[in-house]
Every structure is written in structure tokens, then in C-alpha cells.
């Protein structure tokens, strides 16, 4: 396929390299001349503008930060093909009302950033959420994007933008806020700092992330983060009640047991591969069950899927 | 010294072995005959009762679970020497009103338990809180215990029982409850489980600990755990307010920056060694500053100490 990648940082650069390695004709563009030069020296096709990169493309992948998206969309006025993106929050991008859009979020990253850190193997085995809005997303466009990214080794997870934003609040954004709340207990508290060990180290690790990055993630996904944080606070208040019970040890056990069971079952083990109908509702049900698409069939009538072992129906 | 160790699990067994290796005459006892046999076959002096173990001892170290402590104390009716313990909560032990008591808590552990897992090097470099209650603890007894445990390589941290219980709630008990709250978000939520990655893994690791152990820790330290959990909930509610601000990203940054600074400064680097007066108030001030005792001088007038680097007065 002819693919354009706009934004050649870690994700965009890796995507350009991975798609090229998979045999596609890829043109890249980055607003930063130094980054364009870096990619050119690396032997890549680099265009001089967004419009030039998109000319002749069948799919344009936007790998730019959320605040930059509207400007790039405006530059794509003359392009009428499929558009996807890689931003980590999907509701606000959906709200932009981009034509022929399939929102995406590859859950891949590294400690480093920029084109120099790009790696064509970055997406191998990573979860790549592709948004599917019933009555809004064109299923054929969705399958085109799914075929492209599964071929890079990604586990394509179908979800609505709202489902995605809620899930990442649960597994990433709220965990960052909890880690920060624990780390803040150290302020003016050298005795606690001297006694902290393994549980403190792990529970606070991500609090060391740059404040601007955590704030951008959580603030950019404010609605879902607020909902999940409210649920977590409510849960913690139940622990407070249990700590005030006549026998706090007994009172605490049921919730802690549920937590332990859930944690020990995570990460879920992949079950058996299957062939399933490529309908929008079936795909969303697959994602809700914790499954993903591993390949799109030639006929596009079915997808090859993988569901977690715990979801398998045992006779 | 003549030392008796009551309870020969991981901590008691390791203590018996470490004290013997340090040249002390140690007698052990465990209520479980199989454990006594194991220690005997290991070449240790093992008594047939608590009273027999304590006969002739200058210090008795109780390494038994909190619920068992009152019974063991009753068996020590004929013993009038110094008593210390290793239980992980100090307020409830102090409330038992044990005569000539210096409460202790070595912050050491392993994944395994029982005498078979004992290791004489377990306390090397570990923080060992020794409780010092102004007007209650005999300073000479405290220094005797401090001399014994610093010689095993432990960092002896002076603190009151209340300070200890509050600090461990901050660095261990509440972190376990937060990890459990995050892990509980997975219940009925396979999509989130499929997307969880590094921040979720680390933030929930200790939720996989046995529910009974977490409940015993938190429930056994209910007052301090409740206080700290209340403070953490209040802090998280401020994050909720910030998420509702006109610019949530900007609103979130100050608290996240404070958390990040605190986390990056942890663990504190040890500063320069010093010689300090061995007074009760001086020792408690040392502990509150995040420092610890590394040795007790012959004259017992001073202790050798270490304070964290950030606490050092620079000229």
C-alpha cells in the first residue's frame, strides 16, 4: 500500500520503518527540518509538506501530539483517503470529526524518544487499539487499518473511543495519580523515607515520570480519569470503614482476596486462535472480552482472533 | 552476651544464626517441635520451653506473631532481664506493658518463610527500628539492644512506637491497600486487563500478596493505617478537583511535580558518618531526620550515626 506517516518521532519513525520493512511504499513528513533530514539520511522517502506526503497515499497515519492534530487535519483538506492516528486519548480526537477516520493507539513506548530512537520492531506483540464506533466507522476502513497493523505483529484490539479512554484511565492514568499520592507522603517525612522498601518502591515508581507528561495524559483524558479515580476513592473509603470494624483484619479480607485473585490472573494468558466474523458488533464484543485480532482474512469476512484463556468456554 | 530467641521462623531463626556468628551464646525455642528439631540438627542450642531458654539470658528476643506474644510474656514471669521483639506493629505491643522492654522491628524479609529459610546475613544493611519512649524506655537497655543489632550490620532507627506505626502505614500498609484498589479495577474488565502494561504491573505488584497477610498488617495497625489512608484519599480528591478545572493539565502539575521531586530523591543517599550524644531526645531527633545508629560507643555516651545526605548542613 501507499502509506504516509506524519510526525516522525519515536512512534511515527518506528511506524515508517516497520511499514517499509513490511513492503509498503511509505512517505514520511515531520514539521521539524532536522528530523526530516535525519529520516532522509536514514534512506527514507521524506516529503516537504503534509499535503505532499499524503498525495497518492491510501492511508495517512498521524503520529503528532494531540494539540497539533487540528492543524495537520487542515493541511489534509485535499486528501480523501483513510486517516488513522496514534494519540493516547481517543474521545477528544473523535470529537474533531475527521472524515474517514479510524482512531488508533499503539500501546508501545520506550524510555527514549525522537526519530533516533525509532525501532521497526517496536509494535511486535504490542496491543494496538483501533476505534470502532457503531454507525460511524466504516468497517472496511477499520479492516484495512487492522490488516496493516496486525501484519506488523500488533495485537489489534477493537474498542469504542469511550471504552479505550476508560480502560487506559484504569490501567495507566489513575495508577500514575496513586503513585504520586504515595510519593507525596515523603514530603517532610525523612523517617518514612528511611524505612521505605519494596512495596513503596514499586507503588511509586511511575511517580518519577515528568510531571508535565503525567498531567498531559490525565488532563487530556480528564472525564474518564475522573470517573475511575472516583471509583477508586469510593473503594478506598470502604477499606477505611473496614479498618474501623470491630475486627478489622476479618473485615479487610474479602476485598483484598478479590484484588489478589484479579492480580494473580493478570496478565491474562492467550487462549486458542480462532476465526470469527468481521462484523462491528462481533469485533467490539471481542475487545470487551479481552481478545484481539491477529490477522484479517483475504475476503475480509472474517478475522483471525485470540481471546484470553479465562474467557474460553470449557465443556 | 547470653541471648534467648523465642520463635525460630525466618526472622527468629536468622537472628539466632546471626547472633551466634557474632560470637554470642544463643539459646532458641520454638513452640513447634519440628522447628526445634530442625534448629537442633542445624547445631543450635535449643531449649524445651520459653522459661528454659530465658534462664541465664541477658536479653530475650521475641520473634513470635503478635497474637502469641501475651502467652509468651506470661511464660517469662520468672525472667527479669531485657526483652525485645520483632513484630511489625509497635503500638499494640507497647500497650502490653512488658517490663524492661525495647520494642524492635527489623525491616527485613524474604519471599520464603520458616527456619529452613533462615539466613544469618538477613539483617546486613536493613533498617531496624528500636522504640524509644521518653520517660518509659530505659536508655541503657535501648543502647544494649542497639549495640547488639548494629553489630549484625543493621541500621538502628530510633523512633517512638507511634512514629514507627505511622511511618510503616505510609511506606507499606497504605501502599498495599492502593495496589489492591487498582487490581480490583480488573474485576469484570477484560479489556483493561488486555491493555495493562508497566505502570499497572508495578502499581499492583503487592496486591498479589496473600490477603490474610495484608489484612493482618493493615488491621493490626488500624489506627495509623486509617490516618494515612484518610490523608491519601484527601490528596486524591484534590486531583479530582484539578481534573475538573478549566485547564486540568496546568492544574495537575504542581502536585505531580512535588511527587516527582520526592520520588526522585528516594531512596535517600547516606551522608557522612558522625559521633552524636546518646541521649533519648537526640536519638529520636536523629530518627525523625531520617538517620540511624551504626554503632554504640564503649562508653555508651555517644553513638556513631549516619544521616541522609539531604539532611546534611552544608557550609
TrEMBL record, chains A, B:
InterPro entries, per database record? 6-PGluconate_DH-like_C_sf, NAD(P)-bd_dom_sf, PDH_C, PDH_N, Preph/Arog_dehydrog, Prephen_DH
Q: Which UniProt keywords apply?
A: Oxidoreductase
* MF GO annotations: NAD+ binding; prephenate dehydrogenase (NAD+) activity; prephenate dehydrogenase (NADP+) activity
Q: Set out the biological process GO terms recorded for this chain's protein.
A: tyrosine biosynthetic process
* Residue ranges annotated for the Prephenate/arogenate dehydrogenase domain, each copy included: 1-274
Listed Pfam families: PDH_C (PF20463), PDH_N (PF02153)
User: What family does the Swiss-Prot or TrEMBL record give for this protein?
Assistant: Belongs to the prephenate/arogenate dehydrogenase family.
Please give the name of this protein: Prephenate dehydrogenase
Amino acid at each position: 500500500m501507499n502509506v504516509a506517516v506524519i510526525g516522525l518521532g519515536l512512534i511515527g519513525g518506528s511506524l515508517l520503518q516497520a511499514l517499509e520493512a513490511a513492503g509498503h511504499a511509505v512517505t514520511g513528513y515531520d514539521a521539524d527540518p532536522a528530523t526530516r533530514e535525519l529520516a532522509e539520511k536514514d534512506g527514507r522517502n521524506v516529503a516537504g509538506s503534509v499535503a505532499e506526503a499524503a498525495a497518492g497515499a491510501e492511508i495517512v497515519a498521524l503520529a503528532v501530539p494531540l494539540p497539533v492534530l487540528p492543524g495537520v487535519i487542515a493541511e489534509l483538506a485535499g486528501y480523501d483517503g483513510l486517516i488513522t492516528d496514534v494519540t493516547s486519548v481517543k474521545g477528544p480526537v473523535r470529537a474533531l470529526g475527521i472524515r474517514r477516520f479510524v482512531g488508533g493507539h499503539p500501546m508501545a513506548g520506550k524510555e527514549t524518544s525522537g526519530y533516533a530512537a525509532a525501532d521497526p520492531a517496536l509494535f511486535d506483540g504490542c496491543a494496538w487499539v483501533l476505534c470502532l464506533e457503531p454507525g460511524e466507522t466504516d468497517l472496511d476502513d477499520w479492516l484495512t487499518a487492522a490488516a496493516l497493523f496486525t501484519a506488523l505483529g500488533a495485537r489489534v484490539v477493537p474498542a469504542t473511543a469511550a471504552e479505550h479512554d476508560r480502560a487506559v484511565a484504569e490501567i495507566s492514568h489513575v495508577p500514575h495519580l496513586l503513585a504520586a499520592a504515595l510519593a507525596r507522603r515523603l514530603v517532610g517525612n525523612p523517617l518514612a523515607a528511611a524505612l521505605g522498601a519494596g512495596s513503596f518502591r514499586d507503588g511509586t515508581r511511575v511517580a518519577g515520570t515528568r510531571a508535565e507528561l503525567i498531567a498531559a495524559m490525565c488532563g487530556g483524558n480528564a472525564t474518564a480519569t475522573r470517573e475511575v479515580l472516583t471509583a477508586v476513592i469510593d473503594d478506598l473509603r470502604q477499606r477505611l470503614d473496614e479498618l474501623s470494624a470491630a475486627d478489622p483484619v476479618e473485615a479487610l479480607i474479602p476485598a483484598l482476596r478479590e484484588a489478589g485473585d484479579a492480580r494473580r490472573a493478570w496478565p491474562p494468558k492467550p487462549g486458542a486462535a480462532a476465526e470469527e466474523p468481521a462484523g462491528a458488533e462481533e469485533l467490539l464484543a471481542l475487545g470487551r472480552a479481552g481478545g484481539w485480532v491477529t490477522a484479517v482474512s483475504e475476503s475480509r469476512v472474517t478475522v483471525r482472533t485470540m481471546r484470553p484463556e479465562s474467557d474460553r468456554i470449557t465443556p
